[in-house]
Specification:
single chain, mainly alpha, 3 helices, 0% strand, elongated
């Protein structure tokens, strides 16, 4: 989970740059890049279609 949270850092930097810097307007290319980056971070957490979802074992 920590590596997934760490992978969001560039996305947050882009969002904050658009929000606080006047020289960084949100363009279509930047929007698509943010969406693609978010998809790349979320996709490993989705269970595969047709397979049982990942479950943790009850081992201590």
């Amino acid at each position: 989970m920590a590596s997934i949270a760490n992978a969001t850092a560039p996305l947050w930097a882009a969002v904050l740059a658009v929000a606080f810097l006047r020289d960084e307007p949100l363009t279509l290319q930047k929007s698509l890049g943010l969406a693609l980056g978010f998809t790349g971070i979320v996709s490993p957490r989705r269970p595969r279609l047709g397979r049982a979802p990942f479950r943790r074992s009850a081992r201590p």
